[in-house]
Design a protein that fits this description.
441 residues, two-stranded antiparallel sheet, 16 helices, 60% helix
């Protein structure tokens, strides 16, 4: 077994740190805004404008409460059991994630002691071999890098499923908490450790994240993405209801995405169809730019949002250390598309976003856009297009979407036929009139 024992005196040290941080947060919140800033940031509630609009005290209290949760090992034991019930290869209910999770021995767990199953494994960043033959070592290290990179992709898939499907997320998946576990048959699998931080993401936020990724990559529609910030619970609704503020937010996001999303040169397929360019996401620049928008637009960053960003950023960092060309959006984008097409939560936000993506500016069904969506989902994820279509049709929202598209296409087809018949009838009438005209002559 593995036994985790809390160091004596840690709780008292954290309590002192909490008092210090709350004192600093209270002081920063009390600072008044500069005159020009106060005029721009007057709130509808007529409260005095502050230099920093972010709720620093609430954020500090929330952050430190999570630290205290981590200090209670009974809470970590409960988190581990919750995670195992969802994702364990032995007893998990998730269809997308199957990983090794250590068993917890509750009778021996207390507030300061955690007893769980011992798991043998290696860090995903350990790629150096111990042999003496340089050529064989190089080949062995190359194979290890490929093997570890495949497991990092499994970890990212797992994190995306946790983030977008179940909403229960391991919020600290750094290199020390992810293990490569070798089986007796020569295969390897992924294992998780340390369950002190487990985030819960509301369904509304999960749906908005899916829509944001699809809209930005597929359409590059910054205005539509900015309108989702209310669904993401990042900005107060009264800010989004102000047309001037919403336009300023869209401009700020446009600048942010230009600096954090590096788009490749557009290309076309052999048939001449446009291929969606997947941008290279610079997580550090994205988080830095978003942090600069916090005081301007009264951002309220929930703890789970920061934890999600940190989790994906950490995994991307591990992947890039193994493969510098790795791009996390090549995994996130098809994942978001599949969730968008299937809409298992039957979310109206997802439905509106999908309709926006498959229609032209005139509001008509755009066959080329639909083909592009299916092709993107198939090509990038490596799944045949026929399988993507079948997965969509299997779901109730997918069948509803398919029926609506077929009805509209049939209606347009019949309307076109009637139009052609009317044109043909008009031509025949003109011919008959001309014939009688000549006969009269």
């Amino acid at each position: 077994v593995a036994v985790k024992v809390q160091r004596p005196g840690v709780r008292l040290l954290v309590e002192r740190d909490t008092e210090l941080l709350l004192t600093v947060a209270n002081f920063l919140e009390s600072l008044p805004a500069l005159p020009s800033q106060g005029d721009a940031n007057d709130s509808p509630t007529n409260k005095p404008a502050r230099l920093i609009n972010t709720q620093l005290v609430s954020a500090t209290q929330e952050f430190m409460s999570r630290i205290f949760e981590e200090l209670d090992y009974r809470n970590e034991a409960s988190n581990c059991i919750t995670f195992a019930n969802l994702y364990s290869e032995h007893s998990g209910t998730s269809k997308d994630v199957s990983v090794v999770v250590p068993r917890v021995y509750l009778p021996w767990c207390t507030e300061n002691v955690l007893v769980m199953e011992w798991i043998d494994g290696a860090k995903l960043t350990d790629v150096q071999s111990t042999g003496t033959n340089e050529s064989s070592n190089a080949s062995q290290e190359e194979d290890t890098v490929k093997e570890n990179l495949a497991l990092v992709k499994v970890a990212i898939d797992s994190t995306l499923s946790q983030l977008l499907v179940t909403g229960v997320l391991h919020a600290d998946p750094h290199a020390g908490n992810l293990l490569k576990i070798s089986r007796g048959d020569g295969t390897v699998t992924l294992g998780y450790l340390d369950f002190g931080l487990l985030s819960t993401i509301p369904g509304q936020v999960r749906d908005a994240l899916i829509c944001s990724v699809a809209l930005q990559v597929f359409e590059r529609d910054v205005d539509a993405v900015s309108s989702l910030f209310g669904e993401l619970r990042l900005i107060p609704q009264h800010v989004l209801d102000d047309e001037g503020e919403r336009a300023a937010l869209a401009d700020a996001l446009r600048f942010t995405f230009e600096n954090s999303l590096l788009y490749p040169v557009p290309t076309t397929s052999a048939s001449g169809e446009e291929i969606t360019a997947i941008p290279d996401l610079k997580f550090d620049k994205l988080l830095d730019s978003l942090s600069r928008l916090v005081p301007r637009f009264q951002f309220d960053l929930p703890p789970y949002f920061i934890n999600n960003a940190r989790a994906l950023s950490t995994l991307e960092g591990i992947a890039k250390s193994l493969d510098p060309s790795f791009n996390v959006l090549t995994i996130m984008y098809p994942y978001a598309l599949n969730r968008l097409l299937q809409n298992p939560s039957q979310s109206p936000v997802v439905e509106r976003t999908l309709q926006r993506l498959i229609r032209s500016t005139s509001g008509m069904i755009d066959r080329q856009k639909i083909r592009r969506l299916l092709r993107d989902s198939a090509l990038i994820s490596g799944v045949p297009k026929r399988r993507v279509v079948w997965d969509v049709i299997k779901t109730k929202p997918g069948r509803k979407l398919t029926r609506s598209i077929l009805r509209e296409e049939l209606r347009n087809y019949l309307a076109g036929n009637r139009s052609r018949e009317n044109v043909s009838t008009d031509r025949q009438r003109r011919k008959r009139k001309k014939k009688w005209y000549y006969l009269e002559l």
